[in-house]
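Sequence, structure tokens quoted for completeness.
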Amino acid sequence: MTSRSSTGRGSTAKAVRTVRPAYHCDSCGYATPKWVGRCPDCGTWNSVVETAPSAGGAVAAAVPALAARAPSEPASPIGTVDLEQAARRPTGVDELDRVLGGGLVPGAVVLLAGEPGVGKSTLLLEVAHRWCATGATAPSLVVSGEESAAQVRLRAERTGALHDRLYLATETDLSAVLGHIDAVKPGLLILDSVQTIASPEVDGAPGGVTQVRAVTAALVAVAKERGIATVLVGHVTKDGAIAGPRVLEHLVDVVLHFEGDRHSTLRLVRAVKNRFGAADEVGCFEMHDGGIRGLADPSGLFLSRHADPVPGTCVTVTVEGRRPLLAEVQALVAPSVIPSPRRAVSGLDSARLAMALAVLERRCKVRLHDREVFAATVGGVKVAEPAADLAVGLAVASAARDFPIPASLVAIGEVGLAGEVRPVSAVPRRLAEAARMGFTRALIPAGCGPAATGSAPPKGLTVVEVSDLGGALRAIG
């Protein structure tokens, strides 16, 4: 009798390895064995695409052991590492240097993300120009994958960003970009944008997860090897997040967000990640016809000027990063002709405004349930921190009862659901900024005054501590 193998039709039969397609999300990189219309991880529709098929159905072979090899450089004691290799070089744009922690570190890779048309290319063209104008030993190279050379030249003519040592290239191929780096040998490289560059050796469309990861990894390796300060421009999604895989933010050293409203001249550069400095700094810029310029003292932009006090206005002091900024909150309360009165907000958190209205109605007996309430900030600034709650509550109460708040008063504090005014951070810094701008009276939470902190009050500023919103209303009459 002929015996048969229990594993197949013969002892020489081999197991057949099945090949099945693999799918991943082009937005976040999530992998799934089958196609789905909506990514289970990030929730994006129609972003799951098929990738190269992967072998399955059999046990993977064991990973071969790696043999040790001689390192390129021997390990050295940390105390002997030369610090000059990481010396910062200022970009020439003071507000950007403030966010970066003093300037760009050789070999550092910075990712600057922002909405289309906010001014990223204009800012970086100015940085490239200032880099050359301030006497850098190595030139700057701008690689544009979105605009032609003539379009970039027109912008440079308009903003005055022309220099003999500023080089410009328009490429969408990674190999060509590396060739330009070899030819120019720049000290500063600006790539606009990383989503438009593709590597011919990697599958996938430009801007996809695989391409963005490969392009960024190659540019990071070149920047570290040659000590080139590199700035990558990144796109953002409709939710404001950086487009592409999350690993993109882990590969770079610094992540900056460029924020601003197209209808306002104000622009903010906010640090989200910084391996070489603080990650809570904010730089302020102003867009104008001649380009972009930094604002060393932007507080005046967020205040309106009235000959006489107007009901429904109150000034607060917010903290953006480590910088205190004065912001004016305006409110308008009007009778409603519909059963559900409207609540409109601009520049404020709608949830915190709704809470302030409920506290005013319940704790302070301010009638608002049958009235329309509109609240906004001045100058296009967005105020989301809880320290503005007291100013919002006072502005709404002032508009509802038609009494003006003194123009020389600022209000700082978080309001709780019980109507109490809670402590906030950096009160001495906020008071110093209010005194510098000419305000003479400040309402702050109880226990946050100069006596509690052991510091002297700012000259010319009277500090009044309040424990609840009702006490704040009584303090202003």
Notes: Residues 209-226 form the longest helix (18 residues). The chain has three domains: 20-54, 87-296, 300-475. The two ends are 110 Å apart (CA to CA).
